[in-house]
Amino acid sequence: MLNAARDLTCEAGWDQVSLAAVAARAEVSRPSVYKEFGNRAGLGRALVVRETQQFLAGVADTLYPGLPDTDACLEAAILYVLREADDQPLIRAVVTAAREGSDSLLPYLTARTDPIFDAGQNLVRNWLARRYPEQDMEAVEVAADVIVRMTISHLVLPGGEPRLTARRLATAARKLLR
Question: Could you tell me which residues form the DNA-binding region (predicted)?
Fold first, then answer.
């Protein structure tokens, strides 16, 4: 069902996805979709959670064990996010829709305090804590928050060439932590 929802979203945009269409594409009954997800919002949340988990696994692979130079490693991870988001059909569809004025799935990626946003912050916070063991946890938390929020912001509203953006964000994090 999630694969069907993903395909339909990539083809026509989330605004055009219905539970009936997902059921038809997945070749299951509509009550099965309702039973699994509750409603369209539940389906959207489950879809974005799954895609985000897969996406963050790639970020983790970039960070761990990572490059010896902390700034270069963080820059590589941010660059991975900026480039990979453009290559991932669902994330590209969500970000493109947001740029065009439709933000129906965007809140799941950006503003809601739940496993999606928290997962990115936890990943970055834990990595920063290992790289900067001398820092107090509050500084590490602030840096992780800034990195995740600014990276997501640059996905939605690109600020220029991805490599330069990644370098700037990595530099900002270093300045917060030193």
Answer: 18-37
